[in-house]
Specification:
The structure is a single chain. It is globular, with a radius of gyration of 16 Å. It has a domain at 27-142: 3-Layer(aba) Sandwich (Aminopeptidase), CATH 3.40.630. 20% of the residues lie in helices and 30% in strands. β4, α3 and β5 form a beta-alpha-beta unit. It is of the alpha+beta class. The protein has a 7-stranded mixed sheet, with helices on both faces. It is built from 4 helices and 7 strands, in the order βααβββαβαββ. It has helices at 40-50, 65-73, 125-134, 154-162, and strands at 31-34, 82-87, 90-99, 109-116, 144-150, 166-177, 180-190.
Amino acid sequence: MVRCAGMNGPNARQDPGNRPAPRADRAGAARIRAATRADLQAILDIYNASIPLRIATADLEPQAMPAREKWWEERDHARRPVMVAELDGTVVGWGAFTDFKARPAYAPTAEVSIYVLPTLGGRGIGSALLDALLARTAECKLDRIVALCLDHNAASLGLFRSRGFVDWGAMPDACEFDGVRRTVVILGKSVPL
C-alpha cells in the first residue's frame, strides 16, 4: 500500500521537550540516503503513527519491533532497497520497494511504499523519496512499479500521478476501517531496464 503519513510532532523516539521538531522549509532540505538497521526504530515509529490516520495502511494495530526486524532481515536490500529522508539529523520519512508477490516470475515488478511525517507533508519529502527509489529501478532489475493507494488518500494519489503513475485498476471496498469500506486504487508505472 502506498503511504504518505506518519506522526504528529517530533519523532516518537525523542523527548519532545529536549529537541524541536525538524524543519522542512524546502524539498532540498531533506537528505535522502539508504536506510540502515539503526533507522528501524524511526521507520517503525513513522509507520505506526500512520495507522490511526486510516489513510495510509491497512494495518489496524501498531506493529511491534520484531515484525519490523523480520521485514528488514528477510529483504534483499540490493533489489528491494529502503531509503530514508533526514532533516536536521532526524529521520522524517522512508520509502521502500517490496516484492509484489513472492513467486519468482514476479521479480521484475515491485510495490513501492512512501511514508512521511504529516507535519511535513507537501514539502517535497515524499517526492524526493520516490524519485530516489525510481532512480534505482535499473540496478534493482525492475521494469514495473505498483502503488496501492486508498482512494481517500489524495496526497498519495497526487504524488504517484505526478511521477507518471497511471491507474491500472481498483479493488472496490477492499478495506474496512472502523465500519467504513474503502476502495484501493492500483497505480502503476513501466520503467526502462
